[in-house]
Prior knowledge:
- The chain has helices spanning 13-24, 45-48, 51-54, 68-78, 92-97, 99-120, 154-173, 195-207, 228-239, 257-267, 311-317, 325-341, and strands at 4-8, 28-33, 58-62, 82-85, 125-131, 177-182, 185-186, 214-216, 222-223, 226-227, 246-249, 255-256, 273-275, 282-285, 288-293.
- The protein is α/β, with parallel strands linked by helices.
- The chain has a domain at 4-188 and 226-252 and 305-322: 3-Layer(aba) Sandwich (Rossmann fold), CATH 3.40.50.720.
- Strands 3-2-1-4-5-6-11 form a seven-stranded parallel beta sheet, sandwiched between helices. A four-stranded mixed beta sheet has the order 8-15-14-13, covered by helices on one side. Strands 7-10 form a two-stranded parallel ribbon.
- Strand 5 (125-131), helix 7 and strand 6 (177-182) form a beta-alpha-beta unit.
- Helix 4 (68-78) packs parallel to helix 6 (99-120).
- The chain is globular and about 65 Å long.
- The protein starts with a strand and ends with a helix.
- The structure holds NADP nicotinamide-adenine-dinucleotide phosphate and ligand F7E.
Amino acid sequence: MTKKALIFGITGQDGSYLSRLLLKKNYEVHGVKRRSSSFNTSRIDNIYQDPFVKKKKLILHYGDITDSNSVFSIIKKVNPNEIYNLAAQSHVAVSFEIPEYTTNTDALGTLRILDSILRINKKIKFYQAGSSEMFGKVMEVPQTENTPFYPRSPYGVAKVYSHWITKNYRESYKIFASNGILFNHESPLRGETFVTKKIVQGLCRIKFGKQKKLFLGNLYSKRDWGHAEDYVMAIWKILQQKNADDFVICTGKQFTIKQFLNMTARKLKMSLSWKGKGLNEKAFIKNKPIIEIKKKYFRPSEVDKLVGNYRKAKKRLNWKPKHDLNSLIDDMINYELKLLEK
Ligand code: NAP
Ligand code: F7E
């Protein structure tokens, strides 16, 4: 029997990769997109152009996770086998500017879905997109499923609520509700204001004379970066387990923003020389400054170092990342260069 999946957040980076994966696995995929005065489906438009749509395998519904009515009525109408909650205001820095909206979306949104499942059909399996930001000011290195949370942003705090309400509905009502605790994952489809995309896009554009400078914030925080394509495979596997559970998904490798930047520049054959410190730090090509630091890109509180351990996912999901940082950057660069060629 064809399985039905419902994805909240289908228009985002992960929603795009996950819907492709599920369509390949012969699912009927339903997605929720927000009403907008302009088009917001660019990341899934190319799926629309292929035969999946003619076969009515990809169906979009208008809705918003801040609106209980739309959440309830879409779930009731679709009555899927699996729900993936990827919808979020996912930008950490933005969450300091709009903490109330971030909490409504990233915390209460999860509750709205869980409560609808409870009232409509307790057999629906549920995946919650948790984040390494929940570890924040890390209590141990590397971070595992047992590491206590210490979130450092309204985004991280909201995701901690979602983690616990998911676990609570699992324990209280025996709903199959699982948390992924995903570390940073990137791809050519990453939003343009996240640091990896900003760096790859910025350096490619500088190399081809389309941009003069790139402005960044803290170059010294450390992240464990994987590829979104690998991580959506883990997300799907989490819902195929016999029992609901929580899983850390990561690569186990850590790099600073500056290392990411230098690796990208080397691949583009751009020879950077760094001078200065703090807000005065700059990178030059010959004598031209191309990277400068701006205070506005620093956060009120930072997550300095994240690195995970995916041992449980390897053992129980038979999952490990296929991409390393090199192949991730290559994929992102190739995409940018093709766009610039066009
Ligand atoms: P993303 O590209 O920012 O996508 C977020 C999605 O949520 C978009 O489809 C967005 O719609 C939708 N959305 C936002 N507010 C909504 C609302 N009020 N109602 C309905 N939909 C709403 O994020 P991503 O990188 O794909 O990440 C997917 C999920 O994983 C998010 O929950 C994120 O917090 C979490 N996560 C991401 C990472 C990572 O490194 N990428 C790591 C850990 C956890 P629009 O297209 O209309 O904006
Ligand atoms: O920042 C530093 C910044 O915004 C990474 C989201 O997907 O992953 C993501 O959150 C680091 C931070 O990702 C700039 O201060 C320096 O230390 O790319 P980011 P994030 O905050 O780690 C987690 C796991 C999620 O769950 C989130 O949804 O880079 N940084 N300069 C900068 N960051 C940005 N955005 N822009 C800069 O100019």
